């Protein structure tokens, strides 16, 4: 059972998402909060698997709450799915750097909502093509690598580096498997080793890292 906490200052959003998720056989909403500060308290108390986190809230916004929730987080930390009203939210880049696993539009259908929760609970990222383009555009605007830690790339094998590059271009595991003519499970194994060697938590962090060290560049 996937345990979920919903953090949003709009009662209708919390109620609506709660009803839709509780109708799923494998998902249970265990709590809710009206702002980031209360959200942090509820997460500490309830230890959910996934947190649906609104971006804009009073007292403490979703970005700051996500940063605090995931700063130096251990393996048992929940996955954070940011809730936003439009695809090209200004906070996309910062939210991914803070450790969010993806984005969900508030007008998502019941199916999209449940799928999104399952995807991030399984440790994958939820980045729509629009979000990935936005992220790449942000790196283009910032210009050049941001981080000097490129030396860590030397720990990767040639195939692992190749997998990281394809992940950063927004390809799914299935698409990478097709491109490299290997089994999807092999891609998952390679990517798991990439995360371990680079000390990264998940796919969004890997995408950010690949651009920041210049492994891939906007327009590649």
From TrEMBL:
Residues 149-214 form the HTH luxR-type domain. Pfam families: GerE, Response_reg. The keyword Transcription regulation applies. The modification 4-aspartylphosphate is found at residue 54. The keyword Transport does not apply. Residues 3-121 form the Response regulatory domain. Transmembrane segments: none annotated. Keywords: DNA-binding, Phosphoprotein, Transcription, Transcription regulation. Coiled coil: none annotated. Gene3D superfamilies: 3.40.50.2300. This is Response regulator transcription factor. It comes from Actinomadura parmotrematis.
């Amino acid at each position: 059972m996937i345990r979920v906490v919903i953090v949003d200052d709009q009662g209708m959003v919390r109620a609506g998402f709660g009803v839709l998720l509780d109708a799923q056989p494998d998902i249970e909403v265990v709590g809710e909060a009206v702002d980031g500060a209360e959200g942090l308290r509820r997460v500490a108390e309830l230890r959910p698997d996934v947190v649906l986190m609104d971006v804009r809230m009073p007292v403490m916004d979703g970005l700051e709450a996500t940063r605090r929730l995931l700063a130096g987080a251990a393996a048992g930390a929940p996955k954070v799915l940011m809730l936003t009203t439009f695809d090209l939210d200004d906070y996309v880049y910062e939210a991914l750097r803070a450790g969010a696993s993806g984005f969900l539009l508030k007008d998502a259908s019941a199916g999209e909502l449940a799928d999104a929760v399952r995807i991030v609970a399984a440790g994958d990222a939820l980045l729509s093509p629009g979000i990935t383009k936005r992220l790449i555009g942000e790196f283009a605007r910032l210009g050049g690598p941001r981080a000097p830690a490129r030396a860590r790339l030397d720990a990767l094998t040639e195939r692992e580096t190749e997998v990281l590059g394809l992940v950063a271009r927004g390809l799914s595991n299935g698409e990478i498997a097709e491109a490299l003519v290997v089994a999807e499970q092999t891609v998952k194994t390679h990517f798991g080793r990439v995360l371990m060697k680079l000390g990264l938590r998940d796919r969004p962090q890997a995408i950010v890292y690949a651009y920041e060290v210049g492994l891939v560049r906007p327009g590649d």
